[in-house]
């Protein structure tokens, strides 16, 4: 203790000196400078190694990512695969055409160049050529997609600064026939609508960018579910019907009821995909998928199926259709008013609004909504076609909504969607998403959803057949083929009100009803009375006979032949008459 | 070239200057000219100028840059200190003039119009500031009673404020980095490292909070999906397209669409044409210059020389690092020139001035001979014992 005591004074001085001078917070540590510069060197070394490492990393990933980074300009008119129908007939293919470009800075004399080019190919516009060649760009297109003869003519002139690039141009041998299914490509041969667009979304665009798809011959053709023969017959009959009934538009689809394959789909008016420039907006609308419609009484098939499937209603039940239904300020009455008590089959065959509305009420609003949701009517249906539309549902779903929707007013859906649901009514109750690509019935089975009981489906087939034999759809009958269906005549909404002069007639059908193979939906927009219709414009007078003609024509192509037994059944009453 | 015993000023310069560093710098200048040939015709065409407008001007600026560098490298340390001081004073005056009279280009006032060419005073201020601060810090040792540290700090605040007012966040950042690096090298006590770290963080945060364009650039870097990262994406694309070996001189395409392909993004544009291997060589060359310069700095005898060389090399190194980092998407987008490579007269001349000072300071001098070094080291040992 005493030892340390003697040093206390000096220790304090030392400590103070250390604190205020050597260790003072503001005192610079000059002796550390070299070490600190070394530290900074290390930091720079680390930083520059990081830069180098990053460069090496980029070098390693460059080959893979390169495809992702190709600019749009390099995708000009790449090759596309052929599109075939289900039997291998070509629906779309590439043909190679020369496109002429100019390099303005290599042009010696613009006037002379323009003069000689227009002399060789008179369709070129001199003023346009001059302005393009006068630009200060290095590359200008002069004329896309010329004929080889024109190319040879210009080659012969040997004008400097003019060159050709072979471009792939899409050609559709069947023209308008399957226009809406096939869709469109733009001038750079990129799919912009229909199946063409679908192909691009399925990896073709990536192939293009990787530079693999320059030659169409190396690409696997795409086969569709469409049968070109059926497609042609369907379109041909629809054109005749549209013409005959002076309809604004017509559309139809034929579905394989067991596989969901679209065998044919037509929307009129249509366009020629080989001459896109002439197509109007009205023509490019695919009414079967990109439009939604109130389908009218054809919807009753779904209401009746719902009522039977719920167990609340049996085929033998009856409903009072003597009085029109009044709710709020609305009156629901029948078009073919019978003013009597009707059984369920009678309601279906006479297309009674009062009867179906009462059936819907019996099931209840919740049950009604749940059933329509089960059929997929509450959301847009998505197939391979990019053109799709959301259904229109009532904003508030009260009793009145349920009643009107029961006979097809107040709810708009895609026609293709309704056709798929119609197939479910007759195929044993399985809802199968439609497809435009080939699909086997077994594959469809895996994706199918049971939406009604098989027994209900049997009853619906009976009802739909009965409707052809004794009801509104009589004109769809085809000897030897058990056609069944439900007609619909919807009043179109004009300026927010239902119009009784503008109608949309529909026919939801299936054939043959003893062993259903195909479902069909047909619609005519604003048909007019024709000579043989006695002033009527309802479905039974226009949509139904058209469907009958179509079925008679396509059934043999689809392998549905008149069965001998069936023919006998049909001929029985006739022979009895003799 | 010269006889070793020749006594003329040029011969003496030749035998004393760091010829390796000089060669590396000249290779860098040559590389800059080649990259300018690759990158700038596209920009010139876009601006509807003669395709070689920027190449010609690049070459035109290269001659005086080389001249300034060589002339400066002939100066004695004391002359260098004075020249730097004068340049700094003039530079500060010009910075003030810029705020008052400079034309507004792309939202900021950075230029002074001097007839045939526009001068960017901030470029000249940076090396002059580095040397002057080095002197002030060195004075802190020699004359402890002089308030050199506060003066150095005041200088920093003055210049940084002038640059923020332009606004030029990149140059502000560089000036702050130089000052901190010098303070650190001069022997900043440990607690100050914490204090300055905190201040620097706060400065960056406030820049982010208060300056909208800084914020947007930073956000874009952190979250590329949510913002427009066109330039950085294009730079990335250019490098990826180039791959290891490049697409060949003149074959680049990104330079046609990237707005600053001849200045801030010349590295990426060059990589597209010359490939990643050449880019690596460029990174290595820049790294070599920095490390060699800093090693020379450590070897310097006087505190002033040591700190001045360090400050100048940090300026050079940070500018190169940030520029390439941005090109490689490692750092948020920040307009900064790549020394001797990017197009820009002021930047090039100022860099020549800066590197000239490094060459001048690191010249072998009698006082730096082995004997003298041994003496000082033994003297230091005595002091620390």
Provide an overview of this structure.
The complex is a heterodimer of chains A (578) and B (385). Chain A is an alpha+beta fold and 578 residues long. Chain A has 2 domains: 83-223, Penicillin-binding protein 2a (Domain 2); 237-270 and 287-531, Beta-lactamase (3-Layer(aba) Sandwich), CATH 3.40.710. Chain A has 19 helices and 18 strands. In chain A, the strands form 6 sheets. In chain A, strands 1, 2, 3, 4 and 7 form a 5-stranded mixed beta sheet that branches. Chain A has a 5-stranded antiparallel beta sheet with strand order 9-8-18-17-16, with helices on both faces. The longest helix of chain A is centred in the N-terminal third of the chain and has 33 residues, at 33-65. Chain B has one domain (9-364). Chain B has helices at 9-16, 19-46, 53-73, 77-101, 121-142, 148-165, 169-187, 190-210, 212-222, 230-242, 266-299, 303-327, 345-361, 370-384, and strands spanning 112-114, 117-119. A two-stranded antiparallel sheet of chain B has the order 1-2. In chain B, a hairpin with a 2-residue loop joins strand 1 (112-114) and strand 2. In chain B, helix 5 (121-142) runs antiparallel to helix 12 (303-327) and helix 12 (303-327) packs antiparallel against helix 13. Chain B is globular, with a radius of gyration of 21 Å. The chains are: A alpha+beta (578), B mainly alpha (385). Chain A binds chain B through residues 25-34, 36-38, 40-41, 44-45, 47-48, 50-52, 54-56, 58-59, 61-63, 65-66, 69, 71, 136, and chain B through 45, 48, 137, 140-141, 149, 181, 184-189, 191-192, 236-237, 239-244, 253, 271, 276-277, 279-280, 283-284, 286-287, 290-291, 294-295, 297-298, 303, 306-307, 310, 314, 317, 321, 324-325, 328, 330, 380, 384.
Annotation, overall tally of beta strands of chain B: 2
Query: What is the mean predicted local confidence, pLDDT of chain A?
Result: 83
Q: Uncertain segments of chain A of ≥5 residues (pLDDT<50)?
A: 1-6, 64-76, 565-578
Q: Work out the oligomeric state of the chains in this entry.
A: heterodimer
Question: What radius of gyration of chain B results from the CA coordinates?
Answer: 21 Å
Enumerate how many helices of chain A there are, as a single number. Answer: 19
- CATH fold name of the largest domain in chain A, please? Beta-lactamase
Report the count of strand segments of chain A: 18
Number of domains of chain B: 1
| Structure class of chain B | mainly alpha
End-to-end span of chain A in angstroms? 146 Å
Supply the CATH superfamily name of the largest domain in chain A: DD-peptidase/beta-lactamase superfamily
Instruction: Average the pLDDT over all residues of chain B and give the rounded result.
Output: 82
The major β-sheet of chain B equals: 2 strands, antiparallel
Task: Report the β-strand fraction of chain A as a percent range.
Answer: 15-25%
